[in-house]
Amino acid sequence: MSRTLRIAVPFALALLAAGCKQEAAKPQGMPPAAVTVMTTEAKEVAVRYEYTAQTAGYREVEVRARVTGIVLRRNYKEGAPVRKGETMFTLDPAPFEVAVARAEADLGVSNARLERARRDVARLKPVLEAKAVSQKELDDAVSGVRVTEAETRSLQARLNEAKLNLSYTRVEAPISGISSRAAISEGTLVSGPNVLLATVTQTDPMYVIFGIPDREHLAIRRHVEEGRLKLPQGNRFRTSVKLADGTTYKHSGTLGFTDVRVNSQTGTSEARAEFPNRENALRAGEFVRITLEGAVRPSAIVVPQRAVLEGPKEKFVYVVNAESKAESRPVQVGEWAGEGWIIESGLKPGERVILDGVMKIGPGAPVQVVDAQAGAPGAAPDASKGAVKPAAKEPAAPPAKASK
Asked: N or C: less crowded end of the chain, CB within 10 Å?
């Protein structure tokens, strides 16, 4: 054997031994990803509907003068409460006082003529019996009484009208409520009801007006017909309001009106709830969030929000199949129920939905179910009573290839 060959053979043997050691050091496959799951179940779930809304006064009445005249003074404080019958504006009463005086004088003259005509009739009747006057003279006297009576009634009506117009110079609040800013100032000539002076808004109770999208309205009606949704008896929803700062108004209200028509511009049906507002905490015109409660899903599946993923075309969840592998399942979600989604379709009771660890798996990836609290393999979180236990920190596991 040559010297070169004696050196090459040991070197080749050394390389082969090193390769075997490296091959033995390689892992024999990645362990399954650790995940926590919940077992789905059908149960009765309360449904809440929430909409953007705006408050409005129970009654908002315009204040207008009934006669034409000059505004002498404003008698109320703008923005302050006013009571029904309280004088808010005063018009110049002088022209109306003159009209009353003139009507009274004309009525007095007419009453005097009427009294004289009646005396003439009373005097002519015995004279007619003595054949001292003709029947025509008596008939003329009686006709004169009737004409004078008609004239007196007309003048009396004119006097009543003049007094009524004089009373209208005091423009009173039509209802009790909160007054608005005055639309006119002193010295302005107002032409009767054509000019708006102010408004008064009754704020107790308070209306909360909102729109129900037509698409959602149709879905609710379809679910009711299919037996998948039960509305409260008589549609008496319990309503609550969340104010602009996020706080919840302390009084609850009642849903009192839902329009059957659909607004062609907004695509919504108007609805209106009524709330007590004795402390005037709600102001007319502010934007709020209204919540309707009382409807239930008699047999619904609820999945926590974190388990529902957004795909390129639809939402989906991962479930653990019989082979302990992750399976992608498209789902259709409905309303919110607490912190979870109501699943309209895609899941059945008894399936194991993966809650935590979804970022480490993909469709068909092997998984290992662990207890969310104790970390024991094979145990799933308790999903009884519709509650999903919070997941603890996931146990350390070698990272698996994430799905794209």
From this structure: C
